[in-house]
């Protein structure tokens, strides 16, 4: 097909419009499945990646009673952020904790509802995320509390001991709560669990920073649009 001036104009308009729509309203949602075993420290947390868009679910496996999986996530909307264990393959009594980028604990939960083992971090909690940015979300089987400092005894626990009915939203008011995560108090005997889990997320995106090519495409598109607008203005003025 001959590429004449009309075709060129059509391309010039459609490219920036498409790009803008794509950036403003990322329609696709991404599900992430743990690759291998996610680490349990900020330095070894696994970062879900994918096409730009909403991160809807994280799937993974708690392989033993001492397995902790930490995921580095980008919370784009702190007001709507929530995380809830939506599925488990068996009877995983999960815990969820949100840490900030540096490993300071924000809030955690053992059981989202009475007589369930699954956990949830609600939206709009005072101790929840207050600003968009990188955070670390941990899922683990009960019995492995997070610690700070150089020890694993209860005087390093970041959270207070959880008590019945286990549905409280816990904040980092334990003896080690004012310092950042250095480890998890592990159980003496490691037992295989191999429980699969799904965590449903709100307010989380992947690849929040547009790739350089996207910027280039957007700028090129806007440049072409600007040229066309200028040309048209000139035409009307005459
Ligand atoms: Ca794991
Ligand atoms: Ca792990
Ligand atoms: Ca639980």
From TrEMBL:
Keywords: Signal
The keyword Signal belongs to this UniProt entry's keyword annotation: yes
Transmembrane segments: none
Span of the signal peptide: 1-29
Occurrences of domain Ice-binding protein C-terminal (ranges): 208-232
NCBIfam families the record matches: FDP_fam, PEP_CTERM
Name of protein: Putative secreted protein with PEP-CTERM sorting signal
Protein species of origin: Nitrosospira multiformis
